[in-house]
Amino acid sequence: MSASNFNTIWEDTIYGTGNHLNKYPFDNVVTFIFRNFPRNKPRNEIRILEIGSGAGNNLWFAAREGFSVTGIDGSKSAIDFAKKRFEEEGLKGDFLIGDFTNLPLDDSYFDIVIDRGSIVCVDLEAGKKAIQEAHRTLVKGGLFFFNPYSQAHTSFTSGQLQENGQTSNIKHGTLVGVGNISLYSHRDILDALPTDKWNIQSIKHKEFKEINIHQTVHAEWEIIAQKI
User: Fold this and answer.
1) Host domain of residue 96
2) How many CA atoms lie within 13 A of 54 on its CB side?
3) Among 48, 59, 51, residue whose Cα is nearest residue 26
4) pLDDT at 132
5) What is the spatial distance between Cα 166 and Cα 185, in angstroms, rounded to a whole number?
6) 88 in a domain, yes or no?
7) In the chain, how many domains are there?
8) 3-state secondary structure at position 214
9) Distance separating alpha carbons of residues 195 and 30, to the nearest angstrom
10) Is 153 within 8 Å of 185 (Cβ atoms)?
11) How far apart (Å, rounded) are the C-alpha atoms in residues 26 and 64?
12) pLDDT of the residue at 120
């Protein structure tokens, strides 16, 4: 996905208008970090990268817990919000405006890389590039938390699947209004995490059903993969 396409949706119509500037972390990110951070060194030496960090809400939590954090996002408004919040609260963190398919970051630097619903904003091939970049920047044995949406999602069945793997013209579900989205099958996940690069430690599929007139389903994957 080009920077211009990203900005049209997330910068111009979402973050730039004050929407989705979340203040608090997602519970699955909190759980993942607390269960999996390295125990063999001090927290301030444990480096965490979030790709598609948005307003910095997940990294806000991690910084408060003493970890060293870095975030990258294509939205200037989101990055500015995160920087200002960290400054006001006396927290340390590095925030960059950039493309997570081409990270301006060093090889083998981070202990943990997090993606919570951001890689889905690009097509499947670009998603593979983003995951390759996560792999490059992780230390050997480092962990990647990959949290894409699933094809069991109502927004997948209510949209139109494109040749590049993205779903467009979404009519129903929780992903209306966020542009084209890649919703992953089990095969897509395995293709994106080749076994010569990753040791997949856990794959979970979660579905949340809204019991209303539309009977909508929010479905997502939670994958923990270790760099070989």
Assistant:
1) 3-149+184-209+220-227
2) 24
3) 59
4) 98
5) 12
6) yes
7) 1
8) coil
9) 27
10) no
11) 15
12) 96
What is the dihedral sign for C-alpha 116, 122, 123, 126?
negative
The helix (run of H) or strand (run of E) holding residue 222 is: strand 217-227
| Unique residue bearing structure tokens 């938390």 | 145
Q: How far apart are CA 160 and CA 180, in angstroms?
A: 9
Give the pLDDT confidence score for residue 8 in this predicted structure.
67
For each successive 10 residues of the chain (228 residues), what is the average pLDDT? Answer: 51 72 91 97 98 96 98 94 97 97 97 97 96 98 98 96 95 90 98 98 95 85 98
Q: Residue 52 burial by CB count (10 A; 0-12/13-18/19+): exposed, middle or buried?
A: buried
Q: Does 171 fall in a domain? A: no
Residue 12 lies in a domain: yes
pLDDT of residue 221: 98
**Over the Cα atoms of the chain, what is R_g?**
17
Is residue 183 a contact partner of residue 168, using CB atoms and an 8 Å limit? Answer: no
Q: What pLDDT does residue 3 have?
A: 38
Backbone angles phi, psi at 71, to 5 degrees: -130, 145
Query: Which residues neighbour 221 within 8 Å (Cβ) at sequence distance 6 or greater?
Result: 146, 147, 148, 149, 150, 184, 189, 203, 204, 205, 206
Residue 165 lies in a domain: no
CB distance 118 to 51 below 8 Å: yes
pLDDT, position 18? 66
The predicted pLDDT at position 213 comes to 66
**Sign of the CA dihedral 84, 87, 91, 94?**
positive
- 37: domain CATH number is 3.40.50.150
